[in-house]
Amino acid sequence: MNLVLNLVRVPVATLWAAPEKTRPCDAAALRDEPDIAAWVAAMTPDEQTSSDVVTQALLGDRVTVEESRPDGWSRVAVPGQHDYPGWIRTAHLTTAPASDDRAPAPAAVPPTGDEVLAAARSLLGVTYVWGGLSPHGLDCSGLVHLVWRRLGVRLPRDAHQQQAATTPVLPGEERPGDLYFFARPGRPAHHVGIVVTPGTVIHASPGRHGVVEEPMPPERAETLAGAHRV
After folding, report:
1. How confident is the model at residue 97 (pLDDT cuts 50, 70, 90)?
2. Looking at the whole model, is its pTM more than 0.90?
3. Which position among 92, 136, 203, 228 bears the catalytic label?
């Protein structure tokens, strides 16, 4: 059987832009058995919102290993996430058959708005962490990805990718569980949130340092690019 190093073996593995981009506060995430809660707690709010973290991958996620170095780092890409690779600790990976396809089966019935909101509300209060994709720390698109992932739907990782993968709805016709996208004129979406009711959103807010449910702030309303449905 042809085995390749291609699966995440730890609950949460973090990818960086480069090994030398890690910081002293990242030590807990770099352990062979990473402690993501301790990692988040070790960061200041500024360190949580600004870093060279690319994304995270979760237990059982398949990765494509593009390079492995003797210093314990591997450059990988995570299918369905960013279009560019990141560097991960090789100790966070394990082997599986090359033909093994662990992609989850799609949800038999699309989740309802109430189910989406319940999943999103279960993450209220989670700390905002740039690149975060776990209940220990989330960014805006990480929240959306994780909510739908828990409901059996795999959305892309980034806000602009999620925007491209979903269906626009007319202004005023958004309903609970839809997505609000935010962008500057002529630019791709840079922020995303989950519609609670028209004008109210659940999102991972860097300004509020966490996942919150709130009326759409004025600074977000100014860049609202529209609502989409999954």
Report:
1. confident
2. yes
3. 203
